[in-house]
Amino acid sequence: MYDYLLLVFAIILMILGIIGCLLPVLPGPPLSYLGLLLLHFTRFAAFSSTLLITLAVVVVVVSILDYVVPVWGTRKFGGSKYGARGATVGLIIGLFLGPLGIIIGPFIGAVVGELIFKDDMKYAIKAGFGSLLGFLTGIGLKLAASFAMTFYFVKALIM
Length: 159
Description:
Blueprint: H1 2-22, H2 28-40, H3 49-76, H4 81-94, H5 99-117, H6 121-158
Helix pairs in contact: 1-2, 1-6, 2-3, 2-6, 3-6, 4-5, 4-6, 5-6
């Protein structure tokens, strides 16, 4: 019975981990890792120590890069912290508009944030693009890590 309870929590954490890659309020890869770890403590799967340590390192690196890459992208294109913050607000609003909103929301948010910082449309669009690029790169890294852990999770359940 205990194993099944852990399995249910592990599945919930894996789902929240994928969702957390898109929502800035949930730490996606760490949740996915916790789900994988819970599965490890059941009779359904046993992962090698090497795999668990490697994935833990990946989670730490991706979590750090998630904060560094958007700032780098914004700075690379001449943006400010207003653009990065605007991209986050744009994503949150865009979530209510569906998949297209998730892509367009951060860009519009970054442009608006840059316009608040500096009243220059050309600058705002360029910086907004950099912020969006960095933001989407961070999402891509988190998704890659969470999908890799989901792969190992499903593989362990099937085999």
